[in-house]
Every structure is written in structure tokens, then in C-alpha cells.
Amino acid sequence: MFIGHIPAGYITTKAVFQILPRGYTEKIHLKYALFWGMLGSIFPDLDMFYFYFIDNSRHLHHGYWTHLPFYYLCIFFLLFSISFAFRKHSLKIYLTVFSMNIFIHLFLDTIAGKIRWLYPFSSHDFVFFNVPARHHWWVWNFVFHWTFLFEIILTAIALFLIIRDIRRSNKTVIMTRADIC
Ligand SMILES: [Zn+2]
């Protein structure tokens, strides 16, 4: 997946904020939750720096630990355990949206990429739809494949939510000004 991860992170984090009871969210800033959520949504792909600049594209980046669910399970188990020692409520929420978005990233990568969901017990690459290599530049294989529609839909939903929120906040400003006048 290329352009769909950040929109997916935005949609998921907003949805979590809607679902959580008000008592949970009132002490938490949405902008910080969105930051952690969207960072989680692209975090596994930060391995592209390693892929291009250190590994010289020798291995598929989905084979690095950053794309293996097992390591995230271990890391988050540890982090959640530590977070319970602190009574910081916001810490748990930010950690939840961050970790949730990492797993959504891996799920979305499974649509047309390959993810080893059962590693270290199995090295089987799970993929929903195999994308044939038809173009010289590998990126075009994914962009011109029908599965790219998922990315377009995610981007469209995120844009819709952003525009709706901007309109709502503009309305609130106008109403507040009208109250003052
Ligand atoms: Zn990825």
C-alpha cells in the first residue's frame, strides 16, 4: 500500500475517539491522538530508509522485523505492561491508537503485499491478491492494479472527514461570534 496508510490512520484514530466513552477522551487531545495514530499508520514503512540507504534494496522490506507482527506483539505487550504501572490514562490511549494503527498497516499491506503473520512459527507469506509484474517500475504494478482502489477509497473517506470537520469548526466560530455580537 502506498497512499492509503496515513488516511487509514486518520480514519481509525477518529473512529476510536468517537467510540470511546466521553470519560476516556475528555482529558486527551485529539491532535496528539491523531499524531500517534498517523505515526503508527506509517511506522512499519520507515524501514524504507534502511531498505534504500543501508540494505541497498537487497531484501524485500516486508521481510524486515518492522513488517513482522510477532515483534510488535512482544513490544506492545511489554509497553502495555509498563503503562499499567503508571496511572497515566492518556499514555494508554496514545499507545492503543499507535499499536492499533501498526496492525492496521500490516493488515492493509496484506491486501497486495506479503506479510508473515505466523512468524516465527511459519515463514509463509500471507497475501490476499497477488499483483502480477507487468511494468518496468515495480510501483506501477501496484498503482495500476485494481486493489489500488482501496487506497483511493481510504483517501476519499479521510478527505471527506477533514472537510466535514473544517466546515463544522467554521460553523462553530460563526455561531460563537454571533453569540458575542
Ligand atoms: Zn508497509
TrEMBL record:
Keywords: Hydrolase, Membrane, Transmembrane, Transmembrane helix. The chain crosses the membrane at residues 32-53, 65-86, 93-117, 137-163. GO terms for molecular function: hydrolase activity. This is Hydrolase domain-containing protein. It comes from the Bacteria. InterPro entries: YdjM-like. The lineage of its organism: Bacteria, Pseudomonadati, Thermodesulfobacteriota, Desulfobacteria, Desulfobacterales. It holds the Pfam family YdjM.
